[in-house]
Design goal:
It contains 14 helices and 8 strands. It binds guanosine-5'-triphosphate. This is Signal recognition particle receptor FtsY.
């Protein structure tokens, strides 16, 4: 089990944070679309820096949840039913989902009673505790990468941030000393193979590819054989951004997974579904379809920086019963982070 892919110890963090303050430039850690040349795999990523990025990336959700709760509690002199109802509306609007919201509000009522809390200002602290608990139920930042090779399949519809997420994960694993191989399994979208190759070149990682329009199952088959013979630690396979309502395309994805199931018996596997957080409930619908075709082991929720409805982190995971492993809070390298409930809530309430 690879624990907390992008996490470092707090001591390292504090040390590096002060170093980073002295050394960092605004360009650091950007994606291939922007500045990248000077970056070395694994460098420039600290939890201190990460926390800052996370906080910045969650600004909209903070406005949608924390700031609204702040304003709301200030307008109350006591904790009453109206307060609970107003809080309920805030949480539902932030996409926490009706069931989770109800659970949290019920737990809050209990805690207020047990703690004999009377000051509305204390509600925020209780909410912070309860949100952390709810997120802990759905999080699992660990990736199962025990065998050599291990295989990470990455699926999701067009434009959700799949290729960039693959590039970021690969770059980070390489920085940790792992031998990584990429498979350009998105043979469907023009430019997808080149996009992956740019990530590969950037991090010094080989990419197995065929021509555009070729059979993705054949690419993945070749990549698995190459990963085995080259003694690669982790093979990461891109797949086409198949629209979930195009039955033939989903069938094709099923074919790719059939190959993987056959060729990777006994190997550690992850199937990560990348979802765009800004698409809200639509992301949940997409995820349900993908779950029918593939055995999804984890979710990567990108573009959280683009939405005030960050509560989707909880609702999507609860609804699908699949843990959130990674979250994206921006386009830079360090913006794809392991999903750590405590850190997430701290960033939201800080
Ligand atoms: N703001 C923001 N942008 C992101 C994030 N993750 C990815 N992106 C951007 O989203 C865009 C789409 O990313 P791609 O990686 O090309 O998406 P994709 O899923 O591979 O797309 P297809 O290859 O068409 O399936 C790029 O411009 C990324 O930089 C994120 O967390 N926040």
């Amino acid at each position: 089990m690879l624990k907390n892919l992008f996490k470092k110890s707090e001591e390292q963090t504090r040390e590096e944070e002060s170093k980073e303050e002295q050394e960092s430039t605004p360009e650091e850690g950007q994606s291939p679309a922007s500045s990248q040349e000077e970056e070395t795999p694994g460098e420039g990523v600290t939890l201190g820096g990460l926390f800052g990025r996370l906080k910045e990336g969650l600004t909209k959700t903070k406005k949608g949840i924390t700031d609204r709760v702040d304003d709301m509690v200030k307008s109350y002199t006591k904790i009453d039913e109206d307060l609970f109802e107003e809080l309920e509306e805030i949480l539902i609007t932030a996409d926490l989902g009706v069931n989770t919201t109800m659970e949290i509000i019920d737990q809050l009522r209990d805690r207020v009673r047990e703690n004999k809390t009377t000051d509305p200002m204390e509600v925020k602290g209780l909410l912070k505790e309860l949100l952390t608990e709810a997120l802990e139920e759905v999080a699992d930042p660990n990736l199962n990468l025990e065998t050599t090779p291990s295989v990470i399949m990455v699926v999701g519809v067009n434009g959700v941030g799949k290729t960039t997420s693959i590039g970021k994960i690969a770059h980070k694993l390489k920085g940790e000393g792992k031998k990584v191989l990429l498979a350009a399994g998105d043979t469907f979208r023009a430019g997808a193979i080149d996009q992956l190759k740019i990530w590969g070149e950037r991090s010094g990682i080989d990419v197995i590819s065929h021509q555009e329009g070729s059979d993705p199952a054949a690419v993945v088959y070749d990549a698995i054989q190459a990963a085995k013979s080259r003694k690669v630690d982790v093979l990461i396979c891109d797949t086409a951004g198949r629209l979930h309502n195009k039955k033939n395309l989903m069938n094709e994805l099923g074919k790719v997974f059939k190959i993987v199931n056959r060729e990777c018996d006994g190997l550690s596997r992850e199937s990560l579904l990348v979802l765009d957080a800004t698409t809200g409930q639509n992301a949940i619908q997409q995820a349900k379809i993908f779950k029918e075709v593939t055995n999804i082991s984890g979710l990567v929720l990108t573009k959280l920086d683009g939405t005030a409805k960050g509560g989707i982190v909880i609702s999507v995971s609860k609804e699908l019963k699949v843990p959130v492993k990674l979250i994206g809070v921006g386009e830079k390298l360090e913006d794809l982070q392991s999903f750590e409930p405590k850190t997430f809530v701290e960033a939201l309430f800080d």
